[in-house]
Amino acid sequence: MNWLNSFFKRITGQDEPEKPSIKEEENKLIDEEYLFELEEKLLRADCGLEFSEYIVNNLRSKADLNLKQAQEEVINLCSQTLKQAQNNKPELENHKLNIILIVGVNGAGKTTSIGKLAHKFKKQNKKVLIAPCDTFRAAACEQLEKWAKRADVDILQANIQNKKADSVLYEALAKAKENKVDVLIVDTAGRLQNKKGLMDELGKLSNVIDKHTQENTCVQRLLVIDATTGQNGYSQAVLFNSATELTGIILSKFDGSAKGGILFAISHNLKIPIKYLGLGEQIEQLQEFKPEDFIKNLGINAI
């Protein structure tokens, strides 16, 4: 995960050419100029205003920090933020129907993420069914069928034209129960996140799940965010969370070109766990998010 090393080097200034007096400067106490520059770097890295101010105010409250100590404190604060937002819930619950509602705007990588998840669970010998509940986009079902074939899992074969998303979901739930499915992955429409109709539809889908499922079910609501969208992705998290109470984030298109600061903004402000990182277009390129890996890459031994 070289992106995280690069991230911290950018915000702490470690990627700048080393000057002859760098050793002396490490012992130099930080001042308001340093804090101002640090906040600018955090904002440019898509960390958001609230999290950037949190970091800067923490440093300001600690007297007599030198440059080296300040850099270490930034890393510690960022690491704590990532870990505190995570939970210890299992990826799937055994002997239950695991329903995974996938939400996000068009183009964020929902379809690809669904295919990767289906492949991941298939490799765990789980029986998987995909529900194509994006009834607004004509090509959505066709794209899902291709991914289902690649992952070697079932997809609900239903004529979804002119059907409402909640009725398709109802059919999928019935089939999942009948066939003793382990994992039902539900695709949803992805029109612009500030459209009231889309949010109302997500509410209806949640109501169908609540009404037609029993105690032996486990429901996850995962938002797919394109890592390259920066703070716009954070806005999507806020709006979707208000509509359907998210249980996790899939950060797609996270191939190293993204700045990554959105991870800290979501973890700090919304306390929503980061569940997966999508690292490319290949079906195997879905990585479970583990804060410990990030911390180790920063050279911190105590976890």
CATH architecture assignment of the largest domain: 3-Layer(aba) Sandwich
The rounded Rg comes to 22 Å
Q: What's the CATH C level of the largest domain?
A: Alpha Beta
Query: For this entry, what is the oligomeric state of its chains?
Result: single chain
List keywords for this structure.
303 residues, alpha/beta, Four Helix Bundle (Hemerythrin (Met), subunit A), Rossmann fold, 8 strands, 14% strand, elongated
What is this structure, in a nutshell?
The chain has 2 domains: 2-85, Four Helix Bundle (Hemerythrin (Met), subunit A) (Up-down Bundle), CATH 1.20.120; 97-290, 3-Layer(aba) Sandwich (Rossmann fold), CATH 3.40.50.300.
Topology:
Layout: H1 2-12, H2 22-26, H3 32-44, H4 49-61, H5 67-85, E1 97-103, H6 110-123, E2 128-132, H7 140-151, E3 154-155, H8 165-178, E4 183-187, H9 196-212, E5 217-226, H10 231-244, E6 248-252, H11 262-269, E7 274-278, E8 286-288, H12 291-297
Parallel strand pairs: 1-4, 1-5, 2-3, 2-4, 5-6, 6-7
Antiparallel strand pairs: 7-8
Helix pairs in contact: 3-4, 5-11, 5-12, 6-7, 8-9
